[in-house]
Amino acid sequence: MNEKVAFIGLGNMGYPMAGHLKSAGYEVTVYNRTAAKAEAWVGEHGGAAAATPAEAAEGAAFVFTCVGNDDDLRAVVLGESGAFAGMREGAILIDNTTASATVARELAAAGGERGLGFLDAPVSGGEEGAKKGMLTVMVGGAPDHFARAETAIGAYARAVTLLGPVGAGQLTKMVNQICIAGLLQGLAEGLNFTIKAGLDPHRVVEVISKGAAQSWQMDNRHANMIEDRFDFGFAVDWMRKDLGICLAEGREIGASLPVTALVDQFYGDLQAMGKNRMDTSSLIHRLRRLDG
7: which strand partners? Predict the structure, then answer.
């Protein structure tokens, strides 16, 4: 490609995503709040590390961000050292953070005033999907911006879809998290019931996964739920953050989310137990604690 891009935020997701861009032939400059992480990435993949988001973004056709929340996103995009300050006119910022639709629209407006494009492009597939370059990317933004950026986004994705104007990507990610929350709680209750009833949980899953109960969560999370092993994956803290975004948006648009609100409380129970970094499938751990 020999096209310059910047990647800002080298967490569990961003680190491998930036690596896929480098492997695809892009000239990648990275920025991370902890500079040692950026230097480690350069040591592994090549490219360059910058001292600020603005420096990373200089001369880049596309700037990718993947940080924690709305405030983190504003911090790396806005201000004198933010990405927008270093981006050339016509460049596009592609935000892979799971954040609110509100901040997406806010940043799109601020970028537009500078002649910059903006796509909100949250991802699904977890750390494993990021490592394999097999993420699902839900995009909101202008069709012409999407058309220009689609190939670059595809470096770390198996599916890239434009859902509508700015904000549509984040709204779709909310739907994703709402559905996952209900599926995980249902799977936790089903497996806990299975074990309490004296059935072989592995055999039960083998049977029911061939019918209407089958889901990605069942296929990929039943074994660790049975084994009470959650030291991996998407942390409870991050899911709680995401569900908070969903619930706030639900209140804003008048959409009832009773199951989501309940599961959010259950994740709050896990946080109170000190299980903040457990995978989201740890909902069954809570049931085991309750049932004794």
Answer: 30, 64
Q: What is the pLDDT of residues 113-128, one digit of tens each?
A: 999 999 999 999 999 9
Q: Domain boundary residue among 96, 131, 164?
A: 164
Q: How far apart are the first and last CA of the chain?
A: 57
With contact defined as beta carbons under 8 Å apart, do 104 and 118 qualify? yes
Same domain, yes or no: 160 and 25: yes
Active site residue 173: yes
Out of 22, 131, 173, 275, which one is annotated catalytic?
A: 173
**Alpha helices (runs of H) in 139-215, residue ranges in sequence order:** 143-153, 168-196, 201-208
Answer yes or no: do 88 and 182 share one domain: no
Does the predicted TM-score (pTM) go above 0.90?
A: yes
Task: Quick: pLDDT tens for 128-152.
Answer: 999 999 999 999 999 999 999 999 9
Instruction: Give the residue ranges of the chain where pLDDT is below 50.
Output: none
Whether 59 and 121 map to the same domain: the answer is yes
By three-state DSSP, how is residue 119 classified?
strand
